[in-house]
Amino acid sequence: MEKIKKIDFSIGIFDEISENIKKRIKQESNNCEIYGIGVYADEIVKNKYNTYPMKNEEERMRIAKNIEDVDFVFLVNSTNVDEIKKIVEKACKERLKK
């Protein structure tokens, strides 16, 4: 039987990656086998946070992919909890195929 892997993730805007964010990601990733980051889509940032991201979603995803200890990155284009769960589940399944 295949061992079940512990997966964890964070979701955010990820416009600027401070040292504190890097430390938090390092701590969280040490408690799991696979760690992912969900990056809010530009429209979500504008509508949910009433601000504009400094960088577009593609650039923020590229930045997130390059953070040490991050295994996968996915776009979050909803604020609905059930939809976010589906997005996370799909991203995790895609990562596990690798």
Number of helices: 4
Strands, count:
3
Counting helices, strands and paired strands, the structural category is alpha/beta
Order of helices and strands: EHEHHEH
Which strand order spans the largest sheet, edge to edge or round the barrel? 1-2-3
Computed over alpha carbons, the radius of gyration is: 14 Å
Detailed description of the structure:
The mean pLDDT is 91. Helix content is 46%, strand content 18%. With 98 residues, the chain is of the alpha/beta class.
Task: Give a topology summary.
Elements: E1 7-12, H1 19-30, E2 34-40, H2 42-49, H3 57-65, E3 72-76, H4 81-96
Parallel strand pairs: 1-2, 2-3
List keywords for this structure.
98 residues; 4 helices; globular; 46% helix; alpha/beta; three-stranded parallel beta sheet; single chain
What is this structure, in a nutshell?
Helices cover 46% and strands 18% of the residues. With 98 residues, it is of the alpha/beta class.
